[in-house]
Design brief:
Elements lengths: L10 E3 L6 E3 L18 E7 L4 E6 L14 E7 L4 H10 L4 H8 L6 E4 L4 E10 L7 E10 L3 E6 L8 H8 L10 H14 L1 H21 L3 H33 L7 H67 L20 H22 L11 H4 L5
Parallel strand pairs: 5-9
Antiparallel strand pairs: 1-2, 3-4, 3-5, 6-7, 7-8, 8-9
């Protein structure tokens, strides 16, 4: 549940990628500032074919002179904790109140909205955590595309996947300095989509490890890992599915702010989004099959225990029968039919030897019938290559 300021109307947001929503009756355009949100910082990058500048500005008003120039101006705002800066940002960029609401009240569903002279793109960015098999970071990135400027607003100032784009700008690599602001928006969207691949690569390796663990030695911890993988993949699906549709709408809607040349690049970005979606769906199916495999492994383990108990019981049943007969101790003096073996000199050793012969014979019979082998144990050295 998101925390609210005391003077703000209440709002509700669910964890991760679920949508944000106001309480019924809230005035449209109301923004809710999370009390734990980091303070807002503004970085301006302005470039053309020959020059590029990079500076951190204190107020949104400092960006105003760059917005109507022929150069490309990228204003990157990180952090949603400064309400005054965000409100002034809306005034400088002439943002509709509903646009500012979508930017600040996170998380919103990825989408594209056309406001005539502005194109608003809501996207979700994911990055793998440093420790393997510990999930991923997820945050909302909002892009406002104008004629000569691009405004991006991020939740967190500490991390993003745009460093490669900044490097290409300042090192003047590729064609980014020769293109317009729409191409810059494409490169950022492409970086966001490509950021899903390292995350999915980690989950692919994790699923491979889980497959081997489920087959070799499944435990309750294994079950928790499978549930976590399925939950995380569901979150990734919720992030990439609407994002794919948003990129497709950029291609199909024919906005004047996006040139035909950039639409060709966006088709490649759309293909990457489809590829990510396919990988997520494949991993979800594998994770679901792992659950079935886990339950099957538990069933096999139970069968092995029952088989062992059956073997032990089968061996001791004839031994118990013999011991029970000779435990009755009928008096041989009353009748010659009353257990004459009780008076034999070698009666006790012969009885023990007979019981041992019966037990060994049953073990040999069970072994030759395949009952003594454990089907759930797999030689890891010989079969590990099958799971890689």
């Amino acid at each position: 549940m998101a925390k609210k300021n005391r003077h703000q109307p209440s709002a509700v947001t669910k964890p991760d990628t679920d949508d944000f929503y106001h309480q019924p009756g809230t005035i449209p355009g109301t923004i809710i500032i999370d009390a734990d949100a980091p303070p807002s910082t503004i970085v301006l990058i302005d470039y053309n074919q020959t020059d590029a500048i990079h500076k951190q500005v204190e107020t949104p008003e400092e960006c105003a002179p760059y917005l109507d120039t022929e150069s490309v101006s990228w204003v990157d705002v990180s952090g949603l904790g400064s309400e005054d800066i965000l409100q002034r940002l809306g005034q400088v960029f002439d943002l509709h109140p509903l646009v500012l609401e979508d930017i600040v009240n996170v998380p919103e569903r990825p989408k594209v909205e056309d406001y005539e002279d502005q194109l608003v793109i809501i996207a979700r960015m994911v990055m793998p955590k440093k420790k393997k098999n510990h999930g991923f970071h997820s945050e909302q990135v909002s892009l406002v595309l104008g004629k000569h400027y691009l405004l991006t607003v991020q939740e967190e100032p500490k991390r993003d996947c745009f460093e490669s784009v900044r490097s290409r700008i300042f090192k003047n690599k590729s064609i980014i300095r020769k293109q317009g602001v729409d191409y810059l928006a494409y490169t950022l969207l492409d970086a966001i989509i490509d950021g899903f691949f390292p995350v999915l690569e980690n989950y692919g390796e994790w699923i491979e490890d889980l497959e081997e663990e489920v087959i070799m030695k499944p435990t309750r911890i294994t079950l928790k890992k499978i549930y976590r993988v399925r939950r995380d993949l569901l979150q990734l699906r919720r992030a990439i599915w609407p994002q794919r549709n948003a990129i497709n709408s950029l291609i199909q809607d024919r906005s004047e702010l996006i040139s035909e040349e950039v639409r060709v690049y966006l088709r490649d970005c759309y293909d990457h989004a489809v590829q990510v979606m396919d990988m997520v769906e494949n991993y979800r199916e594998i994770a679901s099959s792992l659950m079935d495999m886990y339950l099957s492994s538990l069933g096999n383990k139970t069968n092995e225990v029952m088989k062992l108990l059956t073997v032990v019981s089968s061996i001791f049943i004839p031994l118990t029968f013999i011991a029970g007969i000779y435990g009755m101790n009928f008096n041989t003096e009353k009748s010659p039919y009353n257990m004459p073996e009780l008076n034999w000199y070698w009666g006790y050793p012969v009885c023990l030897a007979l019981m041992a012969i019966i037990a060994i014979s049953l073990l040999l019979i069970f072994w030759r019938s395949g009952w003594m082998t454990n089907d759930s144990i797999i030689d890891k050295s010989k079969n590990s290559s099958n799971y890689k």
